[in-house]
Design a protein that fits this description.
Layout lengths: L2 H5 L2 H18 L8 H22 L2 H6 L4 H10 L1 H25 L1
Helix pairs in contact: 2-3, 3-5, 3-6, 5-6
Length: 106
Amino acid sequence: MDPRRVLRNPVIVLSALAALLLILPFLFPRLGVGSLGFVLVATIMGFVLWGTFEAALRADSQWSAIDQNKLVWVLVQMFIPLIGTLVYASAVRPRLMDVATVESMV
């Protein structure tokens, strides 16, 4: 399977992160099972990393088709992590996916 396809699917990425979080208490017993803050931070970091990598791996032709700049969106997600990734996932990514669908039909 192409690694780019795996990174583009948030369900796979979040499932892998959830599996990792389930085994963390066994790997680090002093951390404790009730470390909700750690789980929350790890989940947010996973979401931001997914969005950043997903945006970086998109083809330049897809970005130019929607009149957006890949570098700008990668940097926005890096420097304004949660808000930048939420905006990318809700506003930009659906347009990129539409372009990718059209490109795959051609």
